[in-house]
Amino acid sequence: MTARDTANPSKPLVLVVEDEAALATMLRYNLEKEGYRVAEAGDGEEALTLLAERKPDLVLLDWMLPSLSGIEICRQIRRKPATRELPIIMLTARGEEGDKIRGLNTGADDYLTKPFSLPELMARVRALLRRAQPVSQKGQIGWGDITMDLAAHRVTRGGKAIHLGPTEFRLLQFFIQHPGTVFSREELLDAVWGPDIYVEPRTVDVHIRRLRKALNCDTEADIIRTVRAAGYALDSEDAA
Ligand code: CA
């Protein structure tokens, strides 16, 4: 680590929304050690204020919070154009599969159950920030009526803007770079989430659903083919 000023705006800013003071302090300490800037909110109201004022690069969001729940904050983040694409990792004591899927459906990009290991949390923070900032990628790629501007992180379909979260963006980019190829959930996890990240294969289904929903916002035909027992593929262009 270089001895950069903690106020250096080039360091990613992580907003920690957590009402357990000891956990918040531990998260701040370890995130700062990894070179991130940290803003802390102890409840939902404070979180929404900091989101508007500080414009964080990633949010670590506790599910169980006083007054406004993590799920509700997540919804509000996704509803506002300014924060629609903000990466969110939900932290929760709940381990139920149903809750996990519910959290992801609300718009979280990743999900960790307490107690989690710090190295795993840091790996996910790094991976998600990497997904959110494809800085090394330049230029435009396209498929059918879909255009992706990789540098500007913009997607259009039929000339109309499509808003995708960081994970859906990387998924679509990967599909467009490999059209017509069928990928298993595990292969998509490796390619999009990264091989060092353990995510349940069902998580892929949730993000595919979100990607489909975003892309087929009109009456257009679905372009992502589900291959039973195999995985997913961007459909061949002739079939589109
Ligand atoms: Ca809590």
From TrEMBL:
Q: Which GO terms describe its biological process?
A: phosphate ion transport; regulation of DNA-templated transcription
Which residues mediate DNA binding here?
A: 138-236
Q: Pinpoint the OmpR/PhoB-type domain residues.
A: 138-236
Query: Main localisation, per the record?
Result: cytoplasm
Report the locations given in the UniProt record: Cytoplasm
What molecular function terms (GO) are annotated for this protein? phosphorelay response regulator activity; transcription cis-regulatory region binding
Any one GO CC term of the record: protein-DNA complex
The 4-aspartylphosphate modification is found at: 62
> Which keywords does this chain's UniProt record carry?
Activator, Cytoplasm, DNA-binding, Phosphate transport, Phosphoprotein, Transcription, Transcription regulation, Transport, Two-component regulatory system
Which Gene3D superfamilies does the UniProt entry name for this protein?
Answer: 3.40.50.2300, 6.10.250.690, Winged helix-like DNA-binding domain superfamily/Winged helix DNA-binding domain
Query: Domain Response regulatory spans what residues?
Result: 13-129
Specify the superkingdom: Bacteria
Report the InterPro entries cross-referenced here: CheY-like_superfamily, OmpR/PhoB-type_DNA-bd, Sig_transdc_resp-reg_C-effctor, Sig_transdc_resp-reg_PhoB, Sig_transdc_resp-reg_receiver, WalR-like, WH-like_DNA-bd_sf
What Pfam families does the annotation carry? Response_reg (PF00072), Trans_reg_C (PF00486)
Q: CDD domains in the record, alphabetically?
A: trans_reg_C (cd00383)
List the NCBIfam families. PhoB
Tell me, in a sentence or two, what this protein's role is: This protein is a positive regulator for the phosphate regulon. Transcription of this operon is positively regulated by PhoB and PhoR when phosphate is limited.
This chain belongs to the protein called Phosphate regulon transcriptional regulatory protein PhoB
